[in-house]
Amino acid sequence: SLCTAGSNIFASVRENSPVGQFISHISIRSDPGANTVRLCLTGPNANWFYLEGRTIRLNSSASRVLDREVLGPFLIAELTCYEDDIKQSHYRILVEILNENDNKPKFLEETIQPFSISEVNSVVFTVKAVDSDGDMISYFIDQSSDAWFFRIDLPNSGKVVLSKPLDYESRTRLQIIMWAQESNTEEKFNISTVLTIDIEDVDDQYPHFLPCTPVSPRVPICMNPTYTANITGKQQDSVLEFSPGPIRARDGDRGINAPLMYTILSDNHGRFVMDNRTGEIQVEDRLKYSVATVVVRVLSENSFPPVFNATTFKGFIIQSSSPASIVSTYGNQVLQVQVSDQDFSDQGVNPNIRFLLHPPSRLYQVTQEGVLIARTDQLRAFDRHILQQVVARDEESGEEASASVDIEVLQRGQAQQLFGDVDSRLAGGIAALILLMFLSAFLFLLLRF
Ligand SMILES: *[C@@H]1O[C@H](CO)[C@@H](O)[C@H](O)[C@H]1NC(C)=O
Ligand SMILES: *[C@@H]1O[C@H](CO)[C@@H](O)[C@H](O)[C@H]1NC(C)=O
Ligand SMILES: *[C@@H]1O[C@H](CO)[C@@H](O)[C@H](O)[C@H]1NC(C)=O
Ligand SMILES: *[C@@H]1O[C@H](CO)[C@@H](O)[C@H](O)[C@H]1NC(C)=O
Ligand SMILES: *[C@@H]1O[C@H](CO)[C@@H](O)[C@H](O)[C@H]1NC(C)=O
Fold first, then answer.
1. DSSP character for 367?
2. What is the pLDDT of residues 59-78, one digit of tens each?
3. Which residues of 284-294 are buried (b: 16+ CB within 10 A; e: fewer)?
4. Model pTM?
5. Residue where one domain finishes, among candidates 63, 98, 133
6. What is the DSSP letter of 281?
7. Terminal CA-to-CA distance of the chain, rounded, Å?
8. Is the shortest distance between the CB of 47 and ligand 1 below 6 Å?
9. What residue's CA is closest to ligand 4, atom 8?
10. Does residue 4 belong to any structural domain of this protein?
11. What pLDDT score does 425 carry?
12. Which of 46, 188, 340, 344 is least buried, going by the fewest C-beta atoms within 10 A?
């Protein structure tokens, strides 16, 4: 038979080949059409071929390209040979479509949706791209944008790990550009996508008291303020006013703002109470706390100014060559200027009083006990000195009182006339006292100058 000597056909053709591309010879004995021989293509993919004598060619067109990704890897057809319309032989045709890299990788939409990760997470996410040509894909992160937060462990995995801790308090959203690229092809087709990652706040920050003073412009850690309030001893059941005030704290986790509870950690005598809803220790996590110092200055209640018990104090001093002596009263006692302050029940003694001479004198000093000391060797007998203002100043309230001191400078003999022989024992006593005072005054002056 003219139809004999053929065989099943196994061939291959490149994907996207043009129309007329040679597929295979048919090895039958006679040319079809020459005699009564007729060839016929049938089967599922028969319309992908046409016959040209004893040659099978590809039947494609611009609008019908040979696409392996659509058709699958093989074309299957059958060839039947008729002689005088009688079927003489039957052959199978199997043509493999050789893959061409005609597709770019594509990210799977579901793997590149915006998503959130917790700021204390070290976990990872995975992006996935596919390539219709079945090519291998490598992933990498574009070095622009927020790439430095992430890295890819294995280039072919698409698994992204954190390379740097996240911090909601500094960034709440990150964006990275991911590339997927063919790794086993010459063309190395690629594709990119922008990934949006929202950071979720986690309760990881300590609360801090307000106002927040950053440790430095670069270190955003708050230094807690010291709150100060002044009260007087008589205040009771009153709300203290603090400076800076009021006492307030804020959760460091801006996105969470956990409720805060305030408590006094130490208060020596339990004199203060604090409303726990307007202060600071986190309710859920008592390990997250912040401590601020509160200073309450208890001021003595001040209703009365200090008062001198005389407007003018009178005294004398005996001229001598000693550098310093104490001014005495005519009652032969040490002259001591004194004030009383009715705010103080203890005999009106205000411990905060300080004496000073105004204007300061070259010849006299006043001690903190109100005793006046003269530079005896610089005085002239018969002189009279009036110290216009001895000032008593309450160092706490700042209140002042003043009095004057009238001092006569006597000669040694004059003192004897004044006190007479009767008082000689007393005068001796004065002399001894003055000597004693002189010693202490000398020490005082030594310290002072
Ligand atoms: C070639 O393909 C076209 C388009 O599908 C079809 O109309 C035609 O019949 C095919 N030719 C053969 C010989 O099968
Ligand atoms: C992606 O492919 C384009 C060409 O299509 C090329 O210009 C570009 O450099 C490639 N990108 C990367 C990251 O390889
Ligand atoms: C408390 O008193 C001091 C002086 O006694 C004053 O400097 C300070 O401002 C006062 N503080 C407040 C909060 O009133
Ligand atoms: C806060 O104080 C109130 C009233 O003193 C008390 O009932 C409540 O238990 C306190 N809350 C906490 C969390 O200690
Ligand atoms: C002033 O008061 C003190 C004590 O309170 C007293 O010792 C002194 O004698 C008084 N002086 C005068 C001038 O009243």
1. -
2. 999 999 999 999 999 999 99
3. eeeebbbebeb
4. 0.47
5. 98
6. B
7. 145
8. yes
9. 276
10. no
11. 45
12. 188
